[in-house]
Amino acid sequence: MYKMLVLDLDGTLLNDEKNIPEVNVKAINKLYEDFGVIPVIATARPLEVAKFIARQGGEAFGKYIIATNGAILWEAESGETVSRSLSKEQITSLVEVCEANGLEYEFMTTKCEVADSKYSYRRTIDPMYDNMGVPFNYQSNMREYILGQADPIPLFAVNGTEEELQEAMKELQTIQGLQISDLCIRTTPEKDPEGKLKTLRYFDIMREGVTKASAIEMLAERLGIEKKEIIAIGDGGNDIEMLQVAGLKVAMKNADPLLLDIKDIFITAVDNNEGRSRKICKCVV
After folding, report:
1. Contact at 8 Å (CB) between 83 and 74?
2. How far apart, in whole angstroms, are the C-alpha atoms of residue 285 and residue 184?
3. Is 266 in a helix, a strand, or coil?
4. In a structure prediction context, what are the per-residue pLDDT tens digits for the chain, which is 285 residues long?
5. Contact, 56 vs 19, CB < 8 A?
6. CA distances from 245 to 28, 35, 105, 197, 242 (A)
7. Cα(261)–Cα(50) distance, rounded to whole angstroms?
8. Strand 38-42 relative to strand 4-7: parallel, antiparallel, unpaired?
9. Alpha-helical segments (H) within the chain
10. Cβ atoms within 10 A of the Cβ of 264, count?
11. Residue 164: which residues within 8 A CB-CB, separation 6 or more?
């Protein structure tokens, strides 16, 4: 019945240590080997990070990768990369809006995430880069780094409180040719008076028309797969469009509440740290 299984990474396929639980690896490979269901990673992470994760999963995982929220579609066999990056003019305008409003921002290249070193206290340690054996790319002068950046920038993220972002949205929407995701959420190392970890919201910003969904549709058309034959699983605001185009829509138990409003959504019984792919096998069979 299903021919493609599209998987977000953080909070979905990966546990909090940024590894794929073994139960997931076995179940997803079984879907591929026994039923021909092609697993496809669809992440906001850079392409090289997604490739690193795909190698953990085995041969089936690395055939097709959707990175930086759909701005990059990569095919292993041909080595072909479809890239839809932001223009220098758009990036310059985004930086100006962020700096004028005192907002933290970061961006992705195909290789890494780049963030401002002065906001490093807001970031939890990312096990992904420890696993890869590379440091997180902090820069003390983001504007200068961007101007000297030869690698295309497919994704730009703006971080802040919900109120700050709603105010900044008015200016962001004046920049032509952008695709702005729904609000996403991440925790910081800071704690509130009750001892709970503080959270920040953020927008992922890509070139107009770039979403995980648009890349899935592009890949499905190439492979002759219909939307009703696609399973999509995610947990964040940048997964909403992806889930909406799938025949079987699955949100993680730990998903952002925004996903619960999607029509015909299924919720997993367990979170990303507990392993849940056996249930997917049952759905497919």
Report:
1. no
2. 33
3. strand
4. 899 999 999 999 999 899 999 999 998 999 999 999 999 999 999 999 999 999 988 878 889 999 999 999 999 989 899 999 999 999 999 999 999 998 999 999 988 899 999 988 888 878 898 899 888 899 999 989 988 877 899 999 999 888 999 899 989 999 999 999 888 888 788 888 888 888 888 989 999 999 999 999 999 999 999 999 999 999 998 899 999 999 999 999 999 898 988 999 999 999 998 865 444 444 443
5. yes
6. 21, 22, 29, 33, 6
7. 28
8. parallel
9. 22-35, 47-57, 88-100, 127-132, 142-147, 162-172, 212-223, 240-244, 277-284
10. 10
11. 101, 103
For tokens 């690698």, the residue is: 151
Q: Which residues contact 127 (CB under 8 A, 6 or more apart)?
A: 16, 17, 18
Closest CA to 228 of 256, 248, 253: 248
Q: CA 91 to CA 61: how far, in whole Å?
A: 32
Provide the residue type at 197 as one letter: L
Distance between CA atoms of residues 70 and 83, nearest Å: 9
Cα 95 from Cα 100, distance rounded (Å):
8
Read off the pTM.
Answer: 0.89
Whether 241 and 217 have beta carbons less than 8 Å apart is answered as no
Cα-Cα-Cα-Cα torsion 82, 87, 88, 90, nearest 10 degrees, comes to -140
Look up residue 50 and give its two tokens: 């997604």
